[in-house]
Amino acid sequence: MSATLSESIDRLDAAAESRLDSLLESPGDVGILDEHAKRELRRAILTAVCVPGYQVPFGSREMPVARGWGSGGLQITLALVGADDVVKVIDQGDDEGVNAVNLRRLVTETTGATETTEVDEATVVQTRHRIPEDELDEHQTLVLQVPVPEPLRGVERNIAELGRMHAEADYSRMWVSLYEDKVRNGVITKSTGYPCLVGGRYVIATTPIPRWDVPRLHHAPFLSLFGAGRERKIYAIPPDTDVEPLTFDDVPFEVERTAGARCALCGATEAYLIEVPPSVGGAEDGRWICSDTSWCRRRRATDGDA
Amino acid sequence: MIGASPMRPTVLRVEQLGKIFGSQDPAAVAQTGPDAGSEKSPDGSSVVAAWDVSFDVASGEAFGVIGESGSGKSTVMRAIAGDHSASAGSVWMQRRDGSTSDLLTMSPSERRALRVDELAVVYQDAAEGLDLNVTAGGNIADRLTAAGCRHFGQIRERAAELLERTEVPLDRMDDLVRTFSGGMRQRVQLARALANRPPIVLFDEPTTGLDASVAAGVLDLIRSLLEELGIAAVVVSHDFAVIEMLTSRCMVMQHGRVVEQGLTDQLFEDPQAPYTQRLVAAARA
Amino acid sequence: MNSQQQDAQPRPPVLSVRGLRKHFVLHNVDGRNVNGLNGVDLDVSAGEHVALAGSSGAGKSTLLKCIYRTYLPSAGTATLRSPTGEVELTALADAELAGIRGRQFGYVSQFLRAEPRRGALDIVARAGVARGMDRAVATEAAAVSLRRLNVDESLWDVFASVLSGGEKQRVNLAAGTISPPQLLLLDEPVSALDPANREAALELISDLTSHGVAVLAVFHDLDAMARLASRVEVMRDGRIVESGPPGEVLHHLEGVAR
Description:
The structure holds three protein chains of three kinds.
Chain A: H1 2-25, H2 27-31, H3 35-50, E1 56-57, H4 71-80, E2 86-91, H5 98-111, E3 114-115, E4 124-128, E5 141-145, H6 159-167, H7 172-185, E6 195-198, E7 202-205, E8 223-228, E9 233-237, E10 243-245, E11 273-275, E12 288-290, H8 293-305
Parallel strand pairs in A: 2-3, 2-4, 4-5, 5-8
Antiparallel strand pairs in A: 1-9, 6-7, 6-10, 8-9, 11-12
Helix pairs in contact in A: 3-4
Chain B: E1 10-22, H1 27-30, E2 46-58, E3 62-67, H2 73-81, E4 88-94, E5 100-102, H3 108-117, E6 119-122, H4 126-129, H5 136-146, H6 152-165, H7 182-193, E7 200-204, H8 212-229, E8 232-237, H9 240-246, E9 249-254, E10 257-263, H10 264-269, H11 274-284
Parallel strand pairs in B: 3-8, 3-9, 6-7, 7-8
Antiparallel strand pairs in B: 1-2, 1-4, 4-5, 9-10
Helix pairs in contact in B: 5-6, 5-7, 6-7, 7-8
Chain C: E1 15-26, E2 32-44, E3 49-53, H1 60-68, E4 75-82, E5 85-88, H2 94-100, E6 105-108, H3 120-130, H4 135-148, H5 165-177, E7 183-187, H6 195-210, E8 214-218, H7 222-228, E9 231-236, E10 239-244, H8 246-249
Parallel strand pairs in C: 3-8, 3-9, 6-7, 7-8
Antiparallel strand pairs in C: 1-2, 1-4, 4-5, 9-10
């Protein structure tokens, strides 16, 4: 009996040691999420892909970044990437934003993935509030950090009622808010996070991405995953899905455009431009520059070659 | 049948509707009602708010339910509206597609869908039928968009048309309903209720709480609308004048039961039940 | 006179009342029983004006109200006939009765019952629309009728609630007689009118019968009966006690009817 018992204990010890060894060899696994957490996240992601636009609840983990600082997007990225992946992270279009740099370092150091600032090299692009100007393809995944996943938050606070409204596709109050916006202001002023109907069924908040990016979600070839860490929700837009901004038939949806605006750095007019004080970014001769910094940089490099 | 009869199809039929609050003990039914002098069971565990209530309404007809508070009239209205469930009976409704459905067996979401364009309710408290923090036009837009309208110009046009019809000054169309007087709120509520031309409208004490002169105006308006639109209406009120002006047939409720049903003028001029006679005498005094 | 009356086969009466009884049970006055009608038989044909005479309390208004079902008859029948069929009014379901009221047979009381905040022209025109008239035609006919009854044109769009008693009564008569149904029950329709307006009203009522409407009426004065009635039915204690042409019946009623 005792011999058997001690043999068992030895076996268990050996198993534990070998597991520890393997964990130490694969720093990603000891890093931030264990395999169990990843599996749970992947299940939530799969559900989200199966029901486009539906907000899937998940058990949001504590992250080394505060909730509200990209913890939702980070968890999705960590559940997706392995050592073979190439990751790009942008913050408002900028690869060099402090938040982007920190998240990128965190992902690559704990998963073994490599980093890039070039869209065409990336397998996963994690972003806060922009879609890169370059077209992503069907092999790439866009991960969006979402502060407020509930598009109806502005018209209803009650959680149960929100659930009912989505369940019954009862979006009339959202329409009323658009109606009132238009009545009060002559136009629909809602700028970022414009509500969209996904797959003809669920209305989503398009995170605070600018209107400029909204039409690019419609029938996009790539998969978009939205993660809200604080609100513990994941939702998705699978490739080739209808994404229609909510607007009236006689009030066309329009993207941001300022007459005559062009990037002070690369001269682009067909890109999302942001207004900056004259001295920033070397844009002394103008008040607009591209929001997507790597895209802008590449354009300048190409122009230089030409 | 005489000539080309003006009889129109029955669109709402309430059959043996019952609602018991608290313990659902069927014994409570026999222990309550006008004979028992109360809608509460002796042990206090059940309130038989309404029992064995049956009536029908044709399109173009207004049916009244009159009674004192606690008589069960509002319970009947709310059970038909789907604001609360019923304990017994059926509420058959002629649908737009010609089929017939029992509202009481519908899921909450089906009933809500019904409220978009087939069955509207005008409440005593405008806050129940309106979003006070939205404009008059927005409250109408809510119903129109719920029915699928996505054309801003058409929504504006239809909202203006409805507000004009319910005598709300058009320059108030874009004001928050919160800033409206009680009478004006009821008019907006009417406009909203009629937005999608529902064949059935329920009115729950539509003028109670308004100043007499304001109430008279709203009553006038409701009567014209009923005349013009050919809708089937159920009007619930404790006020004889309201029932008399709006309905051609009605019933009297007391302690959760129907004590008498008939032509409205007959009920007021030749009441049969002792309770109705008392009620009429008190109203005439 | 109506040309149909010359047909070999006379048409059956528009209204036939048989054995009509009404008793009231006053539950709140010791359950007391009060007899209103004690078995009334009566016919009214198209183009006939039948006047009910008798002292107050004899049952004249009770009879009209029982036929119209404002009172629930206790026993007996009241049959309404039209070229296409007949209905038993005392047995008709409430909803069906409500459906033919005003359209197949009308009741004109001495009081105007209308929305207080509606104008006279609108009230009368709506009554026409309710009987199937086109709105424009009804408005035109309403104007003709109001003019005929000397209702001042400046009052046509004033809320009816502010009109005088006489004006209201004339508006009520105009509304009750526009595009008239085949049977009209008139309950003291000119009681509040001064002589000139009363004259115009009586002429309008006289025209009804010459256009084939069957009229059953209660007037408080014998002069109106003498002028309008083709037959007078005298009531006492809820029964008809005498019947005949006004010339034969009315002379020994002097002093009784008032």
